[in-house]
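A favour, since you know our structure tokens better than I do. Would you make up a two-line entry for one protein for me to read? Write everything out right here, beneath this request.
=====
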Amino acid sequence: MTISSPLEAPAATGVNPALKFGLLGLGLLGLIAAPWLGAYPVFLMKFLCFALFACAFNLLLGYTGLLSFGHAAFFGGAAYFTGHAAKEWGLTPELAILVGAAGAAALGLIIGFLAIRRQGIYFAMITLALSQMFYFICLRSPFTKGEDGLQGVPRGKLFGVIDLAPSLNMYYFVLAVFVLGLLIIWRFVNSPFGMILRAIRENEPRAVSLGYDVARYKLIAFVMSAALTGLAGGVKALVFQFATLTDVTWQMSGEVILMTLLGGIGTLIGPILGAGVVVTLQNYFATSQFPVTILTGAVFMICVLLFRRGIVGEFYASRLGARLGFDLRR
């Protein structure tokens, strides 16, 4: 079955492998060298956490065609699970993060099982409603410390050996988790399973007629997206050493949607770029009197009006992108 879409993943266009891996290698070298070039490690770690969050969300929206308004539940829920496991149970950071990711996956299984029964705006509203229910559970539960949040989360020692208290050590651990998450997503979307997800996104009735169990594939994609989102949320809890209600609010779900649409849905690099733009704006205007939400809203409006495919998507569709082999299928 031939699938044609303006949101097709760049991997399907036959881009020059040497160019592709060369660019990825340069990007990775840049991230490795960034702390030594004057970049603030905490800012970089925040960017990597949200970049992974956006990539995980894009797995559901860009490749499956499901718009979720409730991904903050997995992001913030994993932060709480990870923080509790590290602080109360005394687990090492890698085990605490796995607890957070597993908790997010379980939460995704419950929410996904209920939400995939509907499509379109009804699916989005169900995810939003269930996410808000989880928010109120976090607000009232002693487990999360309510409005005070879970504070004093220890970073611990990686595998019981490497102390993550120094920011530089923590940064390279976050970078390793980010690269691992990105590799999982890349392998997922470039597998036969990923092609089935694209088929469902493009023409669900036709996928059903071909004999695919669409509900099962949607649920697996939803749980995978939730688990990877939980991976990002768990790492963020260790970076900042706390988990608060901010991470489970509907505004957080809106931010990740903005990041993904700004960079370009259905592309692997787009959500990373979108996350970089939003986090940079938030960090730069954090100490100013100018409301950053107005600026991000203006940037989003400009993107919708001028870059409907997102920044990376428009580049792939341009003549230069086509010459380099990155053009998207129309």
User: Anything to note?
Assistant: Residues 39-249 form one domain. The beta strands are 150-151, 157-158, 162-163, 242-243.
